[in-house]
Structure to design on (1057 residues):
């Protein structure tokens, strides 16, 4: 079962995934490497390179096409997006909100940084596909859910699987 | 009109801000007087950003009420290649700066702030070179205004010239307040020792106030002072309407910091609330981080090298200590100290991530019993690497022509100018090496010995943290690429050490991040291993030391599968007679004292054997020991305190799906009104039936007849088996050996060894066989 | 802080786990032999980690082969030794009984 996401310039895709489903996303991203370079920004320390390797059959040339950068705080995520040059290849944001769920940073700050990130997402999605995955917060407080809502409203399209798929399926996103 | 000046020498105790303006300094004078001096101290911080926003900020500050001096300047940001243009904001009164900054951060959140949230003590230290307990000469006028200040010693001196005559008042309740409400407090000061009853409260407070005023201590050393005693005394004082002069500084309130739980270093950590005094120090023995490791001398040393105030340094984790050192270095170098960690990782390919995202090399040891083994360790390897190879956030990835390639990483490091991190670490490393060297030959009676050992421990914790801190997400001067560069160097260096050993004909039994265990036929004395140490220094450029030569050492296999070696479980006896133990039951905090003590005794008995061949002769004594302990357990003769198990509560009670013993114990405590947070530990005794545990801190002690003897027998036998397994005894054999009085010795312990020699090298044969001593660890055989 | 890749031990256990169905369908005595192979691969996890191979299982297979070969060498030596001893006894004849 392939899931197509309708991609249009200026609209980026939001995938709301339960915690276990990121492997499928990594596999789908790795398959894209067969067509050309792609970028992954990891906001939740989830980018298991071995998963990518297995999905590409261990081919070093394909693995070299996948560019990775990790953010461990929401400040770093904002900086990462600012530093990412205008889309020349598909961009995946993995577990984007993970660093924003950190209550050590004030809600105001997190919202301000998120707004900045949304502006960057608009810029980056103008020319190439952008997919953002998020997990629902483990501590579902009003602030965290609020951040998720902001993303939902800003996204070009939202994909949220209600039921677990019977077996990991490849998705074609673009 | 000449002001009368007084020249004072003494020890600097503290520096803090004065709400009325400037800073307050306390000096413990050579004249025995505690002098309170003050000085103006303007404090500067910076803002950077788009010019239009900075102009707005400028206008806002000029129209504001806080006296500031504004200017435009250029300063160095470590993470930028070129200096940045910043608005310099000099605040006249240091007490005004933090609230002003909070305001600006709220109103102008998009600007980048530097030097904005720094402790005052660090700013002062960066400017004047001061640190707690520094020997100083101060020149003050008749209004106690400090005119001149010079620091006479350095935190890097091994032996400070004179020890300050600190007055210490000890306050200790008669019981652990968490267990039962204390009824009296022990006061110790000078040569006196008094026990004062807490009730009636008025009498107690009057007596304590009298002691505080007469004795005027510099340090209040308490037990449970943060978490119970001082809050309780303050409460009693409030109720009685009496004033308790805990602060030396009149007119200041005691600073109270709430307790907190957080996740760091891979575990849940809980810190009790804190009470800080002004003008004198309060240290709570049970709330001071690692106090049991290095005591007061260690705290003083940490304060000296980090420049943090004594009360702060006693309570913060080593990460804060390292960060403070970096901040002071940055301030002195004119490098801006960022407020938030904003630098993100530079992109790497998936392939590169697999190569760089690794830790140190951790080998699987050759399981079994080995004799005449040398343990060689690099001295503070990661900090040495940072220092020697100049690894710092600004030197990694530098594009200067002086940069060199780091192995495996394809990353460049610029070694032309010392980076911020190496600059910070170098004096600390030097002092550590000097102290360790001095300790090696120091006789036991040398009065400096205890202090040196405390310093060594304090340094060790700082250095162990600085590497992790380099990759920490919130570290101001952290950078993940630098962290990865250090581990890459570490792996390369360890491999070169291994090659040096093998080229010299040594067999390498085990490798662990920064250390190696090697042996070679005929090599038994220290001098025999010197060529190896020289070769390693030659090939790696880093100092390596011989930790010791084991008479014998046993590397243990996994509990679950005897074929699988475990990197960090071993025990052995050095030629000096000293026993070294890692990873086994007696080292674990959740082992009851009854079991730890037996295991330690077993090892002592084995340590008495002259060499590996004589180990079998220890077996009768070991058998007697284990049998005796089991009999004591069955007869109910073991004191209950020795059966207490300590387990950490890893999450809140609601989060447990199936409650662990710790959770069950915590639930019992909760029912009597004692709540525990994640990160705190629960003490309990295993009991028969449900719920299987009895929390130790409940009002009643558990009934000795309810003790789950079988559970403790299991723990005891497991601990015994850990020690006996390298001698060839399986768990079943241990059971038989313990139970059967008629079993005679000697047992067929050492099975035949099957050594395989390949020309030119030695190869251990198959899994589970050790080379020289040839002890076979039994494993599954073909049916 | 920072570590994104699972440890080599975790990767190993995952790979071992991925053969759980295969193992289950084997006869019990064959399961024991398979477990031996995996235990053998665990002797060289440090080298596998350092190798940073894109497909770690290939390194684990090589480790298993390495241990098998060491066993072959050991057995070969043993056999040669036994043969040599046997030959020596034959040469010395029955009236010069030596303890083996």
């Amino acid at each position: 079962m392939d899931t197509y996401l309708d991609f249009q310039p200026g609209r980026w895709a939001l995938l709301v995934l339960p915690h276990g489903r990121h492997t499928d996303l990594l596999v789908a991203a790795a398959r894209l490497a067969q067509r050309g370079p792609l970028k992954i920004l990891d906001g939740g320390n989830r980018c298991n390179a071995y998963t990518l390797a297995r999905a590409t059959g261990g081919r070093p040339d394909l693995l070299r096409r996948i560019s990775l950068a990790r953010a461990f705080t929401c400040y770093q995520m904002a900086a990462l997006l600012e530093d990412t040059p205008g889309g020349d290849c598909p961009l995946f944001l993995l577990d984007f909100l993970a660093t924003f769920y950190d209550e050590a940073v004030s809600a105001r700050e997190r919202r301000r940084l998120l707004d900045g990130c949304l502006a960057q997402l608009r810029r980056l999605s103008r020319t190439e596909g952008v997919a953002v995955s998020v997990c629902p917060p483990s501590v579902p407080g009003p602030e965290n859910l609020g951040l998720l809502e902001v993303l939902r409203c800003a996204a070009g399209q939202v994909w949220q699987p209600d039921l677990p798929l019977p077996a990991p399926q490849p998705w074609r996103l673009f | 009109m000449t002001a009368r000046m007084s020249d004072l020498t003494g020890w600097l105790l503290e520096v803090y801000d004065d709400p009325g303006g400037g800073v307050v300094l306390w000096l413990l004078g050579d004249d025995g007087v505690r002098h309170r001096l003050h000085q103006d101290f303007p404090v500067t911080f910076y803002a950077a950003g788009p010019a239009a926003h900075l102009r707005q900020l400028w206008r806002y500050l000029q129209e504001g009420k806080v006296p500031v001096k504004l200017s435009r300047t250029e300063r160095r940001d470590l993470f930028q290649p070129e200096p940045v243009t910043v608005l310099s904001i000099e605040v006249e009164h240091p007490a005004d700066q933090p609230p002003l900054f909070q305001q600006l951060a709220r109103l102008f959140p998009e600007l980048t702030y530097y030097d904005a949230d720094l402790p005052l003590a660090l700013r002062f230290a960066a400017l004047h070179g001061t640190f707690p307990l520094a020997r100083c000469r101060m020149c003050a006028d008749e209004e106690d205004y400090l005119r001149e200040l010079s620091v006479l010693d350095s935190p890097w001196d091994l032996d400070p010239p004179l020890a300050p005559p600190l007055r210490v008042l000890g306050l200790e309740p008669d019981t652990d307040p968490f267990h039962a409400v204390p009824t009296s407090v022990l006061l110790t000061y000078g040569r006196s020792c008094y026990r004062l009853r807490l009730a009636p409260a008025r009498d107690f407070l009057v007596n304590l106030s009298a002691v505080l005023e007469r004795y005027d201590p510099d340090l209040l050393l308490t037990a449970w002072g943060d978490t119970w005693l001082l809050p309780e005394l303050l409460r009693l004082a409030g109720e009685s309407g009496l004033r308790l002069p805990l602060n030396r500084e009149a007119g200041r309130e005691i600073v109270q910091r709430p307790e907190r739980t957080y996740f760091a270093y891979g575990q849940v950590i809980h810190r009790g609330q804190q009470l800080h005094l002004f003008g004198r120090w309060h240290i709570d023995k049970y709330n001071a981080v690692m106090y049991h490791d290095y005591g007061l001398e260690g705290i003083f040393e940490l304060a000296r090298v980090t420049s943090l105030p004594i009360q702060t340094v006693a309570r913060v984790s080593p990460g804060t200590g390292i960060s403070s050192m970096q901040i002071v270095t940055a301030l002195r170098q004119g490098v801006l100290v960022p407020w938030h960690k904003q630098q993100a990782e530079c992109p790497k390919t998936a392939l590169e991530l697999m190569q760089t995202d690794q830790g140190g090399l951790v080998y699987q040891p050759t399981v079994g019993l080995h004799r005449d083994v040398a343990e060689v360790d690099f001295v503070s390897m990661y900090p040495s690497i940072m220092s020697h190879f100049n690894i710092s956030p600004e030197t990694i990835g530098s594009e200067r022509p002086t940069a060199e390639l780091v192995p495996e990483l394809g990353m460049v490091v610029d070694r032309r100018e010392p980076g911020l991190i190496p600059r910070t670490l170098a004096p600390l490393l030097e002092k550590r090496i000097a102290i360790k060297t001095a300790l090696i030959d120091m006789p036991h009676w040398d009065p400096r010995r205890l202090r040196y050992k405390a310093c060594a421990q304090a340094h060790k914790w700082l250095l162990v943290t600085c590497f992790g801190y380099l990759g920490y997400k919130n570290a101001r001067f952290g950078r993940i690429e630098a962290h990865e560069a250090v581990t890459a160097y570490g792996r390369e260096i360890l491999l070169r050490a291994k090659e040096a050993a093998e080229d010299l004909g040594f067999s390498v039994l085990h490798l662990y991040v920064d250390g190696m265990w090697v042996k070679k036929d005929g090599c038994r004395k220290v001098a025999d291993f010197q060529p190896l140490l020289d070769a390693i220094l030659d090939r790696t450029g880093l100092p390596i030391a011989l930790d010791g030569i084991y008479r014998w050492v046993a590397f243990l296999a996994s509990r679950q599968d005897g074929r699988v070696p475990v990197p960090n479980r071993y025990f052995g006896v050095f030629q000096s007679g000293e026993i070294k133990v890692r990873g086994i039951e007696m080292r674990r905090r959740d082992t009851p004292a009854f079991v730890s003590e037996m295991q330690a005794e077993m090892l002592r008995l084995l340590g008495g054997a002259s060499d590996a061949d004589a180990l079998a002769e220890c077996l009768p004594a070991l058998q007697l020991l284990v049998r005796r302990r089991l009999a004591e357990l069955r007869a109910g003769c073991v004191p209950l305190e020795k059966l207490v198990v300590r387990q950490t509560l890893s999450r809140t009670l609601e989060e447990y799906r199936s409650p662990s013993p710790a959770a069950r114990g915590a639930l019992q405590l909760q029912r009597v009104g004692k709540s525990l947070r994640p990160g705190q530990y629960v003490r309990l005794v295993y009991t028969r039936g449900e719920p299987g545990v009895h929390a130790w801190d409940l009002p009643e002690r558990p009934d000795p007849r309810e003790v789950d003897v079988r559970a403790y027998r299991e723990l005891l036998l497991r601990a015994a088996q850990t020690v006996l397994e390298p001698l060839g005894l399986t768990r079943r054999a241990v059971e038989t050996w313990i139970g059967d009085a008629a079993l005679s010795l000697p047992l067929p312990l050492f099975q035949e060894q099957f050594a395989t020699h390949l020309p030119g090298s030695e190869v251990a044969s198959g899994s589970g066989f050790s080379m020289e001593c040839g002890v076979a660890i039994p494993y599954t055989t073909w049916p | 802080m920072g570590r994104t890749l699972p440890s080599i031990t975790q990767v190993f256990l995952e790979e071992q786990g991925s053969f759980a169905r295969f193992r289950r369908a084997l006869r019990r005595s064959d399961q024991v032999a398979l477990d031996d192979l995996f235990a053998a691969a665990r002797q060289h996890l440090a080298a596998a980690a350092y190798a940073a191979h894109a497909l770690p299982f290939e390194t684990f297979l090589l480790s298993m082969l390495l241990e098998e070969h060491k066993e072959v060498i050991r057995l070969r030596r043993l056999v040669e030794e036994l043969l040599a001893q046997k030959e020596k006894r034959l040469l010395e004849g029955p009236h010069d009984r030596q303890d083996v």
Summary: Confidence is low (pLDDT under 50) at residues 163-169 of chain A. The first helix of chain A runs from residue 22 to 32.
